[in-house]
Amino acid sequence: MKGHSSPTRARTLPVLLAALLLLQLQAGCGNEDYQKPIKQFQDASAVVIASARQTLLQMNDVEENAELSRQVFQGEAFDEKKIKVRDLITQEEIAVRTGALDQLARYTSALADLAALKSPADVTKQFQDVGSAFATLAQDAGKLGGSRLFDNPKFSGAVQAATTGIGIVVRAIEEHRARREIEKQIREQDAAVSSLIALIGDELQAAYQRRRQADSEEGVFLTAALKLELEKPGHGDPALRLLLGDHLRDWRSHQAALATANPKPSVEAMQKAHQALVAYVNSDKSPKNLSELIAAAQDFASRVQPLGQALAALLKA
Amino acid sequence: MTKIEVVTQIGDVLTQIDALLSAPDFSPSTPEWQQLFALRKHLDDQQRELVQEIIKDDTASFQNLAKQLSAAADSLKKVAGNIAKIGSILQTVSTVSSVVDKILSHL
């Protein structure tokens, strides 16, 4: 009855473990200059993106496995059609959403380089690459059909708005406008970028809820099957009881990891860290501003660490 | 309350129901267990439908229904720890489900 396997498991686990290791190493560093929060942001973003991909990729497996378990428990004949009808998300929907998170992280990295007082000319290519990637994402998002899970037109609108906003920033850099003017554009266009991060957070929360419910239902099937066996004369078949016990042990062993695998709080922390960076870009780069940026990045890294550990545990399970 | 918060609240109710269904002194052979399990399945289907639907959650009527859902979920919390009160539990879960039906028909 168990098994939320994913074809990307082999790829996701090393990414998660590497990013987690980096986060832990940075927690021990004493050098609190601006490079540290930026590196923390990048590494924490890698964990969030991996977790988002994992959460979305597992959606269909979770729904299918729940239906299969229900059929088995309720003594129904195996019905593949009923199982497949539970699929909620397409590969295209997953690709566009994880692609958006990836580009949001790259946009923030480009902002970080600008905040490091690199000349706008030095970061032009970085911004242009992100701008082009967003334009492609907006096209891909616009092609998504009706979803069985998410509000694709709303998502496409949010990607379009972020693409337009980032495009304005890219143009300001390409036209070699004054630093102050570029920073003003970054601030003014950021509402669209933040809205997109928030929307992705909401979608991931919904996906996580469905996983939580399917897993909880699995526990009901297992305990009920065991109780029914125990009610039989002589407490039923010992071999079957042991088999059910094994499944229950597996189920119990990943409950703690599942409880902390909600990606939404990490996406919210990512949004806050991004906003802190935008504020820093627009500030006089005083020690106070820097300390606020460091605090936001530290909070992001701290929130992501348990998520990364939970996902690594669930991938191993 | 947003749609996602309502989805989460339904999830919390489902988790409470699952804890009851898994309780050692509540046999799956009883009609009450079967009834609660059927309600659980219905509520799970409703949650999945709600996740899928495009809902305008910033209207007064949605907020009013969300408040009713919170009240029903709170009532369940009060009785959920006691299998002896299975009658009240079934009634409260039915109320939760009927509020979610109203939210879904509000689309």
Structure in words:
The complex is a heterodimer of chains A (317) and B (107). Chain A has 317 residues and is mostly helical. In chain A, 81% of the residues lie in helices and 0% in strands. Chain A has 11 helices and no strands. In chain A, helix 2 packs antiparallel against helix 10 (264-281). Chain B is mostly helical and 107 residues long. In chain B, helix 1 (3-21) runs parallel beside helix 3 (60-79) and helix 2 runs parallel beside helix 4. The mean pLDDT of chain B is 92.
Which labels suit this protein?
heterodimer; A: 317 residues; mainly alpha; 11 helices; elongated; B: 107 residues; 76% helix
| Count of helical regions of chain B | 4
Strand content of chain B: under 5%
Annotation, overall tally of beta strands of chain A: 0
**Binned strand content of chain A:** under 5%
- What is the end-to-end distance of chain B? 16 Å
Largest sheet of chain B: none
Assembly state of the chains shown: heterodimer
SS elements, strand count of chain B: 0
Order of helices and strands of chain B: HHHH
Helix-residue proportion of chain B = over 70%
Overall shape of chain B: elongated
Write the layout of secondary structure elements.
The complex is a heterodimer of chains A (about 325) and B (about 110).
Chain A: H1 9-27, H2 35-73, H3 80-84, H4 91-115, H5 120-143, H6 152-174, H7 179-230, H8 238-253, H9 255-259, H10 264-281, H11 287-316
Chain B: H1 3-21, H2 31-52, H3 60-79, H4 86-105
Brief summary:
The complex is a heterodimer of chains A (317) and B (107). Chain A is mainly α and 317 residues long.
